[in-house]
Write a structure and sequence with these properties.
Blueprint: E1 4-5, E2 11-12, H1 19-23, E3 31-34, H2 42-46, H3 51-64, E4 70-74, H4 77-82, H5 84-100, E5 104-111, H6 124-131, H7 138-151, E6 160-164, H8 177-192, E7 198-202, H9 212-217, E8 223-226, H10 238-255, E9 259-261, H11 271-288, E10 291-292
């Protein structure tokens, strides 16, 4: 078991307190996911890195949310394949920009979530192809090693996130190619740095993917990273979601590892409706002593992070906190009530 940061920002070892207190090791985290505003795909973001825009958007986050201390940054295997030198230079500069502002980083290495438009990520077919390479998962290992060796010396890694929502398209069972891939990447990270805490962002929530995903990941993660969205599909009321969340926390306490919500706050195009999701989810997380990073800090062309686009004849959902003009989204200062 690797060392992890405690609620006071110090390092705690394997013997830290009770299971309940271990769950709350990251209670101090106040952050966001951040997708820069100039691209909808990992390639267009990282291989066309716009430093001035990146800095401006980070500084806007600090302006509107003064307790901001951590950002979850989505890197891109696709961008590395397209142009490794350009990608790694951008990743290094991004890490330093955060470090200069004393912001911790949770890098996301891989992605299993796909939407409209697609950010990029793995498929089952791709993982089988990579697994049959020499060495096994060789293309993904090279990207992982080169990226981690680039950003690790900066010194602001809170933890690493091997993959965002790896089971969205299946694989949440023992022996699956997805699980084998995650286990291989976890071991690769431990070989490179046995001290960096490992997480994998997954739903975790009872009724929405959990707790099966938590149980599958538990043997090789150091921190359980949950995405406990109140998704108001069907008749899922706030009360039902709160019950599912309570069940999830109880299960996590039994697992006995630290917990962080690396995504939360379901989206809506209507500002008031979105504020309702933010208030409900952050209230539950703060009460449980779980640090949080809503999705996402800024308006972006990445899926789910923008207003409806004129001319598109299909629905979208908006999860941003800062508008394209740099103003804070109406009512979204509510975040600060939970800091």
């Amino acid at each position: 078991m690797n060392n992890t940061s405690s609620a006071t920002g110090q390092v705690s070892g394997n013997t830290a307190g009770s299971q309940s207190s271990r769950l709350r090791d990251y209670a101090w985290v106040r952050g966001f996911n951040y997708q820069p505003s100039w691209g909808s795909h990992g390639i267009t973001i990282w291989n066309d890195f716009r430093e001035a825009t990146f800095i401006r958007e980070i500084d806007l986050g600090l302006k509107y949310f003064p307790k901001l201390n951590t950002l979850r940054i989505w890197f891109s295997y696709d961008a590395h394949v397209a142009d490794p030198g350009r990608f790694l230079a951008a990743a290094k500069r991004a890490a330093w920009i955060l470090a200069e502002r004393k912001i911790k980083m949770i890098p996301v290495f891989f992605n299993g979530w796909h939407s409209l438009v697609d950010f990029g990520g793995f498929s089952r077919e791709q993982l089988h192809c990579s697994c049959n390479n020499t060495p096994s998962f060789g293309p993904h290992r090279q990207y992982l090693c080169e990226l981690l060796e680039t950003i690790r010396p900066v010194g602001n890694l809170l933890m690493v996130d091997i993959s965002n929502e790896p089971f969205n398209n299946g694989g949440n069972d023992k022996g699956s190619i997805e699980l084998r891939f995650l286990e291989a990447m976890a071991q690769q990270i431990r070989d490179l740095d046995p001290n960096v805490p490992i997480s994998i962002g997954t739903q975790g929530l009872f009724g929405i993917g959990g707790p099966i995903d938590l149980d599958l990941l538990d043997p090789f993660v150091d921190v359980h990273a949950i995405h406990p969205y109140w998704i108001p599909s069907g008749n899922r009321t706030a009360e039902q979601h709160a019950q599912e969340f309570a069940q999830t926390v109880e299960h996590l306490e039994k697992l006995g590892k630290p917990v962080i919500a690396t995504e939360c706050c379901w989206g809506a195009n209507d500002d008031a409706a979105r504020v309702k999701f933010v208030r409900h989810e952050l209230g539950l997380l703060k009460q449980a002593g779980i640090g949080f990073l809503p999705h996402a800090m800024c308006h972006s062309p990445v899926a789910d992070l923008h207003r409806p686009v004129p001319g598109r004849k299909w629905g979208t959902m908006y999860m941003g906190f800062i508008e394209p003009d740099g103003s804070i989204r109406l009512g979204h200062e509510v975040y600060n009530e939970f800091c």
